[in-house]
Design brief:
The protein has 240 residues and is of the alpha/beta class. It folds into 2 domains: 64 residues, Arc Repressor Mutant, subunit A (Orthogonal Bundle); 157 residues, Mannitol-specific EII, Chain A (3-Layer(aba) Sandwich), CATH 3.40.930.10. The chain contains 10 helices and 8 strands. Strands 4-7-8-6-5 form a 5-stranded mixed beta sheet. Strand 2 and strand 3 form a beta hairpin. The radius of gyration is 18 Å and the shape is globular. It starts with a helix and ends with a helix. The relative contact order is 0.14.
Length: 240
C-alpha cells in the first residue's frame, strides 16, 4: 500500500504535467491562471497530483502520454480491467423514475448497481455526490461518467461500469449545456483500475459506432460486441 500511496500523492511540476498531457508549459500555466486544471501551490510553486491530472484530462478527452498507465508507473501485480468485463459486471439499466436533480438520479443509479449485500451503498452515494461537488462529471453529448475519485475506499466491491439510460434527462452542468440522458458509473477497488477504465471508456466514446449504439439505447450484448470490435480495430491499427 505504501507504493500506491506515494504514487497517488506524487506532486508533478509544470514540466511533468506538460509531458503527461502532451502539451506546452505555456498551456499548463494558462489552465492554472483560468482555474480550470486541478493544482496545488507548494512553496510558492505550482504542483499537480498525477491521478487528478489523468482524471481531469480523460474527462475532457484531452490527449495523454501513451505510457501514462504503464505497468512500472502504477500499482504492480494487479490485472488490468477490460472495458467489456467491467460493463458485463455493471450491466445495462433503464432508469424510468423522474429524478429532479443529480442527487436524486445518483441515488437511483447506486440502487441499480449489482453490488454485494455487504457493500455500503449509502457511503458510495455520498462519495459520488462529493465528487460531483468538485466538478461535473458530464462530458458532453448527453453523457456523464460519475465515479469515485478515491476508489481504494471500496476495496470490497468488484470493478464495474454500470450503464444507465435515463427516460428523463437530468441537468449535470455539462460543458455543452446539454442534459444527461446516458450515464456510466465506474466503481473500482484500486486507483490503477479506476484510471484505466476511465481512459478506456473515454476512448470508446470517440468511436462513432459505439456512440451510435448508445444513441439507439443498445442492450448489453450489442454494446459488448461494439467494445470488442473497437478494441480489435485499435489493436490492428497499432500493428500496421
Amino acid at each position: 500500500m505504501r507504493q500506491v500511496y506515494e504514487w497517488c500523492h506524487m506532486h508533478f511540476t509544470v514540466r511533468d504535467a506538460a509531458k503527461l498531457l502532451q502539451t506546452t508549459e505555456k498551456q499548463i500555466y494558462g489552465w492554472v491562471d483560468e482555474g480550470d486544471i486541478p493544482f496545488e501551490t507548494v512553496n510558492e510553486q505550482v504542483r499537480f497530483n498525477r491521478s487528478e491530472l489523468l482524471e481531469w484530462a480523460t474527462l475532457r478527452r484531452l490527449p495523454i502520454a501513451p505510457d501514462a498507465f504503464s505497468q512500472n508507473s502504477l500499482e504492480e501485480g494487479l490485472p488490468l480491467p477490460t472495458l467489456a468485463e467491467a460493463l458485463a459486471v455493471g450491466g445495462v439499466h433503464r432508469v424510468d423514475a423522474d429524478a429532479k436533480d443529480r442527487e436524486g438520479l445518483l441515488r437511483q443509479v447506486v440502487a441499480a448497481m449489482p453490488l454485494k449485500e455487504q457493500a455500503d451503498r449509502e457511503l458510495l452515494f455520498q462519495v459520488l455526490i462529493a465528487r460531483e461537488g468538485m466538478g461535473s462529471t458530464a462530458v458532453g453529448d448527453g453523457i456523464a461518467i460519475p465515479h469515485v475519485r478515491a476508489p481504494a475506499v471500496f476495496h470490497q466491491v468488484p470493478t464495474s461500469i454500470t450503464l444507465c439510460y435515463l427516460e428523463h434527462p437530468v441537468d449535470f452542468g455539462a460543458p455543452d449545456g446539454r442534459p444527461v440522458h446516458t450515464l456510466f458509473s465506474i466503481v473500482s477497488p484500486n486507483i490503477r483500475g479506476h484510471l484505466e477504465l476511465l481512459a478506456k471508456l473515454a476512448a470508446a466514446l470517440h468511436d462513432p459506432r459505439f456512440k451510435a449504439a448508445l444513441g439507439r439505447r443498445a442492450g448489453a450484448d450489442e454494446l459488448l460486441a461494439e467494445v470488442g470490435r473497437s478494441v480489435a480495430s485499435k489493436s490492428s491499427t497499432k500493428e500496421r
